[in-house]
Amino acid sequence: MSPVHAPHTHEKRLFVLDTNVLMHDPTALFRFQEHDIFLPMVVLEELDRGKKGVSEVARNVRQVSRFLDDLISAAGEDSIRAGVEIATDFLRLNNGKGPTGKLLFQTETLNGQLPTNLPGDSPDNSILSVALSLQSKFPERDVILVSKDINLRIKATIVGLKAEDYFNDQVLDDADLLPTGFHELPADFWDGHSKEMKSWQEQGHTFYKLVGPMTDDWLPGHFLAMPGDSPFEAIVREKSPDHAVIETIRDFTETRHAVWGITARNREQNFALNLLMDPEIDIVTLLGAAGTGKTLLTLAAGLAQLLDEQLYKEIIMTRVTVPVGEDIGFLPGTEEEKMTPWMGALMDNLEVLTQPANGGKWGRTATDEFLMSKIKVKSLNFMRGRTFLNRYIIIDEAQNLTPKQMKTLITRAGPGTKVVCLGNIAQIDTPYLTETSSGLTYVVDRFKGWPHGGHVTLQRGERSRLADYASDHL
């Protein structure tokens, strides 16, 4: 191991923060526990340039500025050169463990010797220069550059600096640790769990109270499945340390249980429809690749409960407007007209759901107009401050939202409202978001085990044999 990368365990580490870390998470200032944080002057300049506007990034920048102002005001200007103690008023941000390090600002010129193959005075190179100077100034300390920019981390490693990604925003260490929403039971399950079993019926539903070793891993809202000639499928309703209460689910694969003409084509779709059609479940998250039926099942369940059961007043659909290719520029019209190009998935699935047996072209047109009057397409930009009562809210492409944006949307729900989050964490288009830091991952992890929430990962594509083959081989 080279001297530059040798660990110094006897000293607190010194983290040099890149601008994008603070733009991504304003509370990053309080996430480094006992270690010190250094902010180069170029970072403050970039924050100043990014403070204008109503975007999420601009709001984050303004919040960082408020945090810095509060810290400096509390410490006094005289302590800036020695380092500002990071206030302990933010204990709640670190699960009760308050930061005890110092916040250091660049108060003098720091010019580290950059290699000649890094010419120019770009902000990234300025940050590298400052970090190299700190490394020379404090040889006894670990100086680590923290950035969400992969290229900057690569350049830092090349010039002999330690560089890390910002990991504190990650919900999980690995996306594979996300729950699938169901457990597959072994064939001998009943042998070890039927001795103290109790069963009863309430309002046409069959319940079982079970005791056994496998119940330890179950959570409310998770499904149980035992494949075989007579498959058994149930949902966990209650979980305590010594027992679990499960309820058998409705079989939506049967035509007589079709939802707005749609039947489940596989086990996971059946689980999803049970969650979507259950009025006791307030939030549903559906993960899955393209073609697994997320949007179709969600719309079918929403229309059935809106028009047949009249549980909701209307369906509200929204999604983040992140283009896959080049942006096509400004769009004319009202809020709904501007959102129309982003709602192709809605229109495609409505075509499947609005095919009347009789009536021909005029019947289809009348049906489409009637349904569109019940389905509102909203932009994320105008959600803050609103409250939705008795609405069925669909958040499409939720993997492109940050945890903060997801919190803003879900907290819009008033009494009688159901929220459905759809997405594929393998297709993230938002910069600096990953599978482990996506807002959708955040919601799945935080709501697991809540009796009024449910999650299912759809695994089998049902679009076409071409789409299935393309998903596997392209």
TrEMBL record:
GO molecular function per UniProt: ATP binding
Similarity comment: family membership: Belongs to the PhoH family. In the N-terminal section; belongs to the PINc/VapC protein family.
CDD domains listed in its UniProt record: PIN_VapC_PhoHL-ATPase
Domain PIN: 13-154
One Pfam family named in its UniProt record: PhoH
Protein name per UniProt: PhoH family protein
UniProt signal peptide: none
GO CC, any one term: cytosol
Superkingdom: Bacteria
SUPFAM superfamilies (alphabetical): P-loop containing nucleoside triphosphate hydrolases (SSF52540), PIN domain-like (SSF88723)
Organism expressing this protein natively: Thiothrix nivea (strain ATCC 35100 / DSM 5205 / JP2)
Keywords in alphabetical order: ATP-binding, Nucleotide-binding
